[in-house]
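Internal ticket #5521
Category: modeling
Description: The requester needs a full-assembly model to guide mutagenesis choices. All entity lines are attached below as received. Residue total reported by intake: 368.
Assigned to: D.W.
Attached entities:
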Amino acid sequence: MKIMPTAEQTLQEIMNLAATHFKVSPDKLRPDEDFFKTLGIDSLQALDLLTKLENHFKIELPDYELQGVSDFRTLAARIQARL
Amino acid sequence: MESTKPITLHESNAEAKPAGHDAGSALSWSSKDGVIELALHRAPCNELGSTSLEELEKFATALQQMQGSMHALIIHSEMKSGFCAGADLRELYRRSHALDKAEAAKGVRDFLERIHRVLNLIDAAPLTTIAAVHGVTFGGGFELALTCDLIIADKMARFCFPELRLGLIPGFGGIPRLKRDLGNAIVRDLLLTGRSFNATKAQQIGLVSQVVGEGEALRAARATAAQLGKFDSVTAAAAKKFIKPIPHEELRHEIDLFCQLFASPAVESGLRKFVDSTDAQPYLP
């Protein structure tokens, strides 16, 4: 039986994936900060991250669900809802 | 067996000259071992405007001269960000603002008819066509990929018809081609939500024939093209013509509907929002 990750585990996985994908130190990322600013990314790069996350978690997350989402904690909640 | 004959867009004749990318050129092509490769390389992401269209028209002329002795065409992008982000909306906004409404409408129709001619030629070409895609494959870029017989996508490819966000519909033949390939429920989902979707989803719905590792799409396309070279090209062309209808009537209807919608205030507002965005490339909905 597949064990569902907790919201906190999902959050950590997302931050680790983002750090690896954008080649930044995980220490620089905070759950509640604006990741567009912290990572220095634009919307195209955000879509890249979305693809990575969909592939990793094996989910489909419509990009309109990311409207207004700019912090990892909220992003994690969106993903958690699809697991 | 042909030797590699890279051809840049400066040539108007069929005679090949040594390859070289011109900074001002949007695309270039070469042929080797019966396979034509069309490389898109207009920064930032191969946006399709007047330069790209002129060069695609030249390519289409060259294709008609070459296709009799070739068995495959691969279309791919050399831009890191993706295959093609779609129509050059900044150019469209700028040009339509410089003209009165009637002239702008005529300009749009003229552009659509020209690009349809090119895409219809690629769609119907008597050789197997492969789009090797990665990254952003949006709008007109998605429509270009849909003209191909096969789409091979790397796992970071992302597809979208975002036109509704601009008060428009796809105008480069995307709707008839999507309807040709997919069930109506999926077409409704993609068009009416304007959402982007990844290569895995694209394969699940039957749009993409192979999903490969990041950066591997062109290699996989070349391997597929080599396989195609084993078959009799006349038979393959006949089979393709039998299998793949070109929806001419719907394509013309799409042009009419696009032109009708282009006149609405929603389009002006949608284009202005895109052009005024402070994001480098405002691709999130």
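Resolution: model delivered.
Comment from assignee: The domain at 27-276 of chain B is CATH 3.90.226.10 (2-enoyl-CoA Hydratase; Chain A, domain 1).
Ticket closed.
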